[in-house]
Design a protein that fits this description.
Blueprint: H1 2-18, H2 20-59, E1 65-68, H3 72-79, E2 84-96, E3 107-113, H4 115-122, E4 127-131, E5 139-143, H5 144-149, E6 160-167, E7 170-183, E8 193-198, H6 200-205, E9 214-219, H7 225-236, E10 244-246, H8 252-287, H9 289-297, H10 302-341, H11 355-382, H12 385-389, H13 409-417, H14 421-447, H15 450-457, E11 462-466, H16 475-487, E12 492-505, H17 513-522, E13 539-545, H18 547-556, H19 563-567, E14 572-575, E15 587-592, E16 597-607, H20 609-612, E17 622-625, H21 626-632, E18 637-645, H22 647-662, E19 667-671, H23 672-715, H24 717-725, H25 730-770, H26 780-805, H27 810-814
Parallel strand pairs: 3-8, 5-7, 13-17, 14-16
Antiparallel strand pairs: 1-9, 1-10, 2-3, 2-6, 2-9, 4-7, 5-8, 6-7, 11-18, 11-19, 12-13, 12-15, 12-18, 14-17, 15-16
């Protein structure tokens, strides 16, 4: 028995060494399959982990949901909930006055977390924490971003920080002690808003008269958050002014698209790699069938022959899988950061090194290789010895052909392709999958063009927004100078100017009840109690708008107003989508704070809230004509500027606008052109990455074709030599083989342009669910290049192989 095993092992190794070309093809297929599996899964896992980590950091909490203004009874019910793992409470106490800030265009609030909120929900989202949570009444903990706003570049634990702040509309001054500092990422969501954390003792000494608070909730399970929110809302018996809001998370549709995309890639990788491995082994065994027949004639059993073939498959895996894993790991280390740097995850790159990725990739590659070996092994084991010795490369069915074209070269080529239908369709399927995936990848990249996203989100070429509402002695003249300079910019087609001034609206109890209810429903986390409002704290915004802009916006919204009266300052517009809230209000009186002037204006219409999206501090936002605001509030500052340019003037104008805005730090500029350029850069990087993966898969299909054609011609060299001996010229032989290649290319092209297009469009529809801005855009250039490459390889491979055989004499090839 031991001697038999040794003989079988020796035969396996010698046969393995003799099949160098087969070993190269199969090893390459295994390496590519393992490489693609490792890199695709690693990229997908890294994207998910990076996305989840970024979500937590930007939101600033690991909580699943927030709920506002809980009562003592609701707190008790929350504590008794079986689905809640932990919860914490937070509250905004006051606002830091600008004179305490080194960066005047930022806003800093005094904020409070209770201990569970900080230790269990907040600390996992921060980095570089030093010091301790504030305990004493005068201690504060400050993020590094807020320290910079305060002008502190080198913080020291225990240092004194004098601050002026506003609490319940009154100004206070206090010196605080720095107990700790850390790096937080919430500023990525609100670049000019930061916070300073105070102690529980300080928060207790500064209660909220309206009982405002926000409770963060983390559930025991992170599945079906929306359903858990609904169940908790019923348990807490929330009022109409209370709301449970889910923290920002990856939507289920986005996750489905990601999982589907990874799964689809893995399926195609396994199928393409499996087809190549199967075809190479099948052809190899077909060519060696005489060898296996002789072994059977000498007494080798079918089981032993299967053992020889499977052992060789294991040897190929032992070579290909480690190489594929090594290359996959190396590519992942480079590819994952490269891919994530062009996404929104650039600051939170997590390269997934989970060992299960490599274990599963190795198992998949091993399984696909063994499964691809089973069928050829069965064929070799079952063929009788006498048949195996006389075996030819293929045995076509005998059939009479009645056609006057039967002897034509293109007809002979067609029959040669399908003399072994299974092999032919495997090659065509492999080519089809590779090219279709390449086209589908490019279609997805073209369709989900980030440039389309920018265009859909930005309607104006340049947008300038004020970061605060505070005025300075020179602010009015600076704003006028800015508008003058903007009007001198080359290529300027139009500019919309919005001016703003803070006002105190005359308050009467009962008069604004409906408006306050609507306001609280919309801004549940900034709601106001009507009993606590009066004419000294009912703050609103007065906005000046161009008459042409007002006319255009109102027309789009199908709302009417007296344009002449509005332009002359005889009426105002109120920002609202609920006119019934003002059914009992005919006019609005207000005090312009900067001017100490009282004005009363009749309501002449209702301006859509979506256009400016101005949130006041409780009172309505009132719009007047720009001509009128200059009379009512001469010190009104620029709220927003929206500009459009001709194509020739935009690039130079953006540069000049940057220089103007750099001198005015309280403005933020956004340019559509710059956003589009950034999007193009990101799209190019994504395209390179996606095409690299798709090209490898396409290469597997082309490699399969090259192997089949090469092996087929080599195995048919006796047949081709016989044809030459009875009169077929070498030119005719080459022409027939060229026809065979063209048929392969033609069939593949037809499948790609029909079934492949359907698959591509189906993939686009799935992507469209997550990226609503996507536009179906076929990459015709890539389609043409890929099909041209297929036809070229299909045409020239047979000719090149045949030329290589031409060095043998015809008599030697017939033997």
């Amino acid at each position: 028995m031991k001697i038999q095993k040794k003989i079988i092992r020796d035969i396996c190794l010698k046969s393995f060494k003799a099949n160098k070309r087969r070993n190269i093809f199969v090893s390459i297929a295994i390496v590519l399959t393992t490489l693609l599996l490792t890199s695709i899964v690693s990229l997908g896992m890294s994207f998910m982990e990076s996305s989840q980590q970024q979500q937590r950091q930007i939101v600033g909490t690991t909580a699943d949901a927030n709920v506002n203004n809980l009562t003592a009874i609701q707190y008790q019910k929350l504590a008794q909930s079986d689905t809640v793992a932990t919860y914490g409470t937070q509250r905004t106490i006051g606002m830091i006055n600008s004179k305490s800030l080194a960066k005047k265009d930022a806003e800093v609030i005094l904020h409070w977390y209770d201990e569970p909120e900080w230790t269990q929900l907040r600390t996992p989202t921060i980095t570089d924490f030093k010091g301790s949570f504030p305990q004493k009444k005068n201690e504060v903990m400050v993020p590094i971003s807020a320290l910079k706003v305060l002008g502190i570049s080198k913080p020291v634990i225990g240092m004194e920080i004098p601050l002026d702040f506003t609490y319940q509309n009154k100004e206070y001054t206090q010196t605080f002690i720095l107990s700790g500092y850390f790096k937080e990422y919430v500023t990525q969501r609100a670049a000019d808003l930061s916070f300073i954390l105070v102690s529980t003792k300080f928060a207790s000494a500064h209660p909220d008269s309206e009982g405002k608070n926000t409770v963060s909730i983390k559930y025991k399970s992170n599945q079906n958050i929306a359903q858990q929110n609904n169940e908790l809302a019923k348990l807490l018996e929330l009022t109409e002014n209370q709301e449970i809001k889910t923290t920002t998370r990856e939507s289920e549709s986005n996750m489905f698209t990601l999982y589907f995309g990874i799964g689809l890639f893995i399926f195609i990788i396994l199928l393409s790699g499996g087809l190549l491995i199967y075809n190479v082994l099948y052809i190899s065994i077909a060519n060696d069938i005489r060898f296996y027949g002789l072994l059977k004639a000498l007494g080798t059993t079918g089981k032993q022959i299967r053992s020889i073939i499977l052992r060789q498959a294991f040897l190929l895996c032992a070579i290909g899988i480690p190489v594929g894993l090594f290359l996959g790991g190396a590519v992942s280390i480079v590819l994952v950061p490269f891919a994530l740097k062009v996404s929104t995850l650039a600051d939170t790159i997590v390269v997934s090194t989970n060992p299960w990725i490599y274990v599963l990739a190795a198992l998949f590659s091993l399984c696909i290789t063994l499964l691809s070996s089973i069928k050829p092994a069965k064929i070799a084991a079952k063929v009788p010895a006498i048949h195996a010795i006389k075996f030819t490369e293929s045995t076509p069915k005998k059939q009479k052909v009645h056609s006057r074209f039967g002897g034509n070269l293109y007809t002979m080529a067609w029959r040669n392709i399908f003399r072994d239908k299974k092999r032919a369709w495997i090659v065509i399927l492999s080519l089809f999958l590779g090219i279709s995936l390449y086209i589908a990848t490019n279609t997805a990249l073209e369709s989900v063009d980030l440039e389309n996203f920018v265009i859909s989100e930005m309607s104006d070429d340049i947008s300038i927004v004020s970061q605060n509402e505070e005025t300075s002695p020179n602010r009015v003249s600076e704003d006028k100078e800015l508008i003058h300079q903007i009007n001198q910019l080359p290529g300027l087609e139009n500019v919309d100017v919005y001016l703003s001034s803070k006002i105190l609206v005359d308050f009467e109890k009962g008069k604004f009840s409906n408006f306050i209810k609507s306001y609280n429903k919309t801004f549940k986390y900034g709601m106001h109690k009507e009993d606590n409002l009066n004419s000294s704290n009912f703050y609103g915004n007065l906005v000046g708008i161009d008459i042409d802009e007002a006319r255009s916006v109102m027309k789009k919204a199908n709302r009417s107003f007296d344009e002449e009266a509005f332009n002359d300052g005889e009426i105002c517009l109120v920002q609202s989508d609920s006119p019934k809230d003002f059914a009992n209000i005919t006019d609005l009186g207000f005090n312009v704070i900067e001017e100490k002037r009282h004005v009363t204006l009749p309501i002449g219409g209702y301006f859509p809230t979506a256009h400016l999206e101005q949130q006041s501090e409780g009172a309505p936002t009132i719009l007047v004509s720009k001509k009128n605001i200059n009379q009512i509030a001469p010190k009104a500052s620029i709220l927003e500027l929206r500009m459009n340019f001709s194509d020739k003037g935009e690039v130079e104008s953006v540069k000049q606008m940057r220089e103007l805005i750099n001198q005015r730090p309280y403005f933020n500029l956004m340019s559509k052109r710059e956003q589009i350029d950034n999007a193009r850069s990101s799209s190019m990087t994504l395209r390179i990455m996606g095409n690299a993966l798709a090209i490898i898969l396409a290469s597997i299909g082309l490699l399969n074709f090259v192997n089949v054609i090469t092996t087929s011609i080599i195995s048919r060299k006796q047949e081709l030599a016989t044809l030459e001996s009875i009169g077929m010229t070498r030119k005719q032989t080459n022409k027939m083989l060229a026809y065979e290649g063209l048929y392969y290319g033609g069939i593949t092209a037809v499948l790609v342009l029909t079934l492949g297009m359907l698959l591509t469009y189906g993939l686009f529809l799935i992507i469209k669910n997550s990226a609503t801005y996507a536009i179906f855009d076929l990459p015709f250039k890539e389609i043409a290049i890929s099909l041209l490459l297929v036809f070229s390889i299909c045409l020239f491979t047979p000719i090149i192989v045949m030329k290589a055989l031409a060095y043998e004499h015809i008599a030697d090839r017939i033997k």
